[in-house]
């Protein structure tokens, strides 16, 4: 992908996350007393479900691009060699391990079962 597309994706994902936070904040400010029934009605709306799904995808895109940028910008022979000459020799391996670790962590968190029995919510 081109650098400008990656830049736009990260900026637009942060804008969507910010708009979502404003949306949630407006709910909390406009609702005087929040209890389980009011919160349940709010989260069952189609607008909430769609916006939460969009923001979840935006968070994934934003964090992936951010971690990728850190790995490619700072785990290079030049940068690590500035810190220590022996680190520059393992820069490519450290970048590979960095990418593998965060990709595996993302998959583990994504595939982790999130089933909570309804009886525990009450």
What do these coordinates show?
- With 122 residues, the protein is mainly alpha-helical.
- The chain has helices spanning 3-30, 36-43, 46-74, 77-83, 85-88, 91-111, 118-121.
- The radius of gyration is 20 Å and the shape is elongated.
- The model has no long low-confidence stretch (mean pLDDT 87).
- Binned strand content: under 5%
Rough shape?
elongated
CATH class: Mainly Alpha
Question: Could you give the count of β-strands?
Answer: 0
Mean pLDDT: 87
Give the number of domains. Answer: 1
The share of residues in helices is over 70%
**In the CATH hierarchy, what is the architecture at level 2?**
Up-down Bundle
Task: Please trace the helix and strand order, writing H or E for each element.
Answer: HHHHHHH
CATH topology grouping: 3 helical TM bundles of succinate and fumarate reductases
Quaternary organisation of the protein chains: single chain
Contiguous low-pLDDT stretches (5 residues minimum) are none
Number of helices: 7
- The rounded distance between the terminal residues' Cα atoms is 47 Å
The CATH homologous superfamily name equals Fumarate reductase/succinate dehydrogenase, transmembrane subunit
């Amino acid at each position: 992908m081109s650098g400008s597309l990656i830049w736009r994706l990260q900026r637009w994902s942060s804008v969507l996350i910010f708009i979502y936070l404003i949306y949630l904040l407006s709910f909390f400010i406009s609702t005087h007393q929040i209890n389980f029934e009011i919160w349940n009605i709010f989260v069952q709306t189609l607008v909430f479900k769609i916006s939460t799904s969009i923001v979840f995808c935006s968070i994934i895109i934003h964090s992936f691009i951010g971690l990728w940028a850190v790995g490619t910008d700072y785990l290079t022979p030049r940068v690590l060699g500035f810190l220590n000459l022996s680190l520059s020799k393992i820069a490519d391996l450290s970048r590979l391990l960095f990418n593998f670790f965060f990709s595996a962590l993302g998959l583990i968190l994504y595939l982790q079962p999130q089933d909570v029995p309804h009886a525990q919510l009450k």
